[in-house]
Model the fold of this input.
Amino acid sequence: MSKVTRPQIWIIFGVLSLIAVLTLWFTLNSPRNDEIAKEQARFDARDQVAQTKPQADKKFKAALVSVAVAKADWGRYDKRFMPRINVSNLYTAWQQIQKEQLYDLGPKLDKFVKADKGVQIVQSSFSLYPPPNDPNQCSMPILVDNKGTVTVSGNFDAVLRHVERWNNFDRLVLVTGFNLQGNSPRLLGNYNIQIFEFTQGDKPGPNFPAASGGAGAGGMGGGMAPGGMMGPGGMGPGGMDGGGGKSMPGAAGMATMGGA
Done:
């Protein structure tokens, strides 16, 4: 075996040194390269999102327009169908609910039903729940009442038109349980109605301290006779004149109005 010459030793030494340097370089830089690759991937992902910003801005502006239109539509709807009950002041809201339940809604229902001359009103019975005793209970965003049952008689078209008329009532009405009995032209149509009333005000006002006896401030106990509307034995002038009994028990009860 021939001897290794000096040039060969330098070549071997250089190759080994290069291998060592490369190994050290990759060992030290591999984590950094991985981090760079990771950050590059994150950048690419965010860049894809950023490229959609003009389209997103366009959709956002369109959404703002849609919201404005919806608010305007609701404003007209609210003005047409909803009474003024503003819960930002609970005592005022309590008074407004009294007025709505006792003076406005009852007569409106009776007048609206009887105004349809295309059918015969066989029976109409409405339940008018009085306001709560405590103004603090008036903070609800929506009032929902099952108001009663109506039965009418007429031909098929007349009965359907009668039910459809509730779309023109100046409160939001849901007709439920509608059914027909008999044979045309003397059909009986029977249904129930619910009234939905949204209150106004961004947030409920402060609570009132409870008065003695458990009722809220200004609470109503015993019989209810606001402004002479309700008197002993029935309903005074301006009330609903159905054919059935008319009475209002205590504030926790309800007034019933029947018509035949």
Q: What stands out?
A: Strands lie at 120-128, 142-154, 172-183, 186-198, 230-231, 234-235, 246-247, 255-259.
